[in-house]
Design a protein that fits this description.
The structure holds two protein chains of two kinds. Among the domains of chain A are: 27-108, Macroglobulin (MG2) domain (Immunoglobulin-like, Sandwich); 111-162. Chain A has four helices and seven strands, in the order αβββββββααα. Chain A has helices spanning 2-19, 111-128, 132-178, 182-207; strands spanning 27-34, 37-44, 54-58, 64-69, 75-79, 86-93, 96-102. In chain A, α2 packs antiparallel against α3 (132-178). Chain A is elongated, with a radius of gyration of 28 Å. Chain B contains eight helices and two strands. By secondary structure, chain B is mainly α. In chain B, α2 runs antiparallel to α3 (66-73), α3 (66-73) runs antiparallel to α4 and α5 (100-119) packs antiparallel against α6. The chains are: A alpha+beta, B mainly alpha. Chains A and B meet through α1, β6, β7 and α4 of A and α2, β2, α4, α6 and α7 of B.
Chain lengths: 208, 211
């Protein structure tokens, strides 16, 4: 009888654990920018993806810029609406929430395009003038434009490939940083016994 | 179970710290010298149990064990849990630093309630399974009480109370059952091996179990 009851209870808990999500876990976030797109990935302390979780993005002053939900992979991506520090907040409910501020420096909103744009403008202005000297100038301008364009293209390509290459590295680094490492746990136990020692020391001095 | 930073409003956080100070002052008075190691050991148990995730199937659980701390330490449980919560916040970011007060009241309060439930066993005729049953109930109540405080705290930050409370309790049902089993088993073991370790232990029953 007792055995049957135990079995029933165990299967029931297994069932419930299967069904319910890991609400009781701390939620963590991994966010990175690629060009003007920002990718956010949420996961719980046990490594499970945070699906269907609210993501809200604020600017510096705390004004809400946009909000959304993570997909089944725990991911959410959006196009940065402005070049400023973005405060990304991920709320998994039940008091589990995490925030991360993506510095403005990591966002590259149309940076490359702008340079080519200005160069093209100056070029067309130059081409309107007709003197030979300015023709020469135009030639040098053209070569400079090519250089600038090339630079922009290269910059963009390098940024993209380096970003791709670094991504897994950054991710594992973030995960490592946030993981409950055994060393820290043992350190915590050490703190507890250290506090015990201090209290005991003062107590024993008082009583003796 | 631990609430993170940036969710609760300032008055609630302040109330949490206030409550923690009051409860700590009330429960930590005149602590005996030989009680301190016991409190520390239980603080360590609580601290570790919260951080280690045990994989079960596709997901994982972690213990809260505030009920067990309450059953073993009695009123002193609050000190142990407070120490554990503070270290978890600073070392792991497990629960926010500003929320330490609320988290202490939430988890430590659960431990104290578990202790009261545990003490109720004196009103019943002693039997073989009395300790086990009350240990299990105390373990479950400890977690549920924390769930209610959690819901109340979230309610003040704008969530709807009944929905949140139901959600919080439903989410903690597996934890609740597992805690009940673990605390029941621990208590049964301690009753046989070291009955004097349990809180509210009466000397008379101790002699009886020794004889």
């Amino acid at each position: 009888m007792m055995k049957k009851v135990c079995l029933f209870i165990t299967t029931m808990c297994l069932f419930l654990v299967f069904v319910s999500d890991s609400y009781a876990h701390k939620v963590q976030m991994f966010a990175y920018a690629e060009g003007e797109n920002v990718f956010v990935e949420g996961y719980f302390a046990d490594g499970k993806k945070a699906m269907n979780t609210d993501v809200i993005v604020y600017d510096n002053s705390g004004k809400e810029l946009l909000r959304g939900k993570t997909n089944d992979e725990g991911q959410f991506s959006f196009k940065a609406p402005q070049k400023s520090d973005l405060k990304i907040s991920l709320n998994a409910g039940m008091g589990h929430k995490t925030e991360y501020t993506l510095p403005a420096g990591e966002l590259h909103i149309g940076g490359g395009k702008n340079t080519t744009g200005t160069v093209t403008a100056s070029l067309s202005k130059d081409s309107n003038s007709k003197t030979v000297r300015e023709e020469k100038n135009k030639v040098s301008q053209t070569s400079r434009f090519d250089e600038a364009q090339l630079q922009a293209v290269v910059e963009k390509a390098v940024e993209k490939s380096v970003g791709e290459a670094i991504k897994p590295l950054v991710r594992s680094f973030t995960e490592m940083q946030q993981k409950n490492s055994l060393t820290t746990i043992i350190g915590g136990i050490g703190y507890i016994f250290g506090v015990m020692g201090i209290v005991l020391y003062f107590k024993s001095r008082r009583s003796s | 179970m631990h609430i993170a930073d940036g969710i609760l409003s300032a008055p609630v956080l302040a109330a949490g710290f206030g409550g923690t100070v009051v409860i700590a002052a009330a429960t930590m008075r005149k602590m005996d010298l030989d009680e301190i190691p016991k409190v520390s050991v239980m603080a360590a148990v609580f601290f570790v149990a919260n951080l280690i995730h045990i994989p079960i199937g596709p997901t994982s659980i972690h213990f809260i064990l505030n009920g067990l701390v309450g059953v073993i330490l009695g009123p002193r449980a609050f000190a142990a849990i407070m120490l554990g919560v503070i270290l978890q916040a600073f070392l792991f970011g497990f629960g926010g630093v500003t929320v330490i007060g609320v988290n202490c009241v939430m988890l430590g309060g659960g431990a104290l309630i578990a202790y009261f439930i545990w003490q109720m066993r004196h009103r019943f005729p002693s039997g073989d399974r009395l300790e086990m049953v009350f240990g299990a109930i105390a373990g479950a109540v400890g977690v549920s009480f924390s769930g209610v405080i959690l819901a109340a705290a979230l309610f003040t930050s704008g969530d709807e109370f009944w929905a949140t409370a139901g959600y919080a309790l439903a989410a903690h049902v597996p934890a609740l059952i597992i805690e009940a089993i673990v605390v029941g088993a621990c208590v049964t073991f301690l009753k046989k091996a070291r009955p004097d370790m349990l809180a509210g232990h009466v000397q008379k029953t101790y002699n009886k179990s020794v004889a």
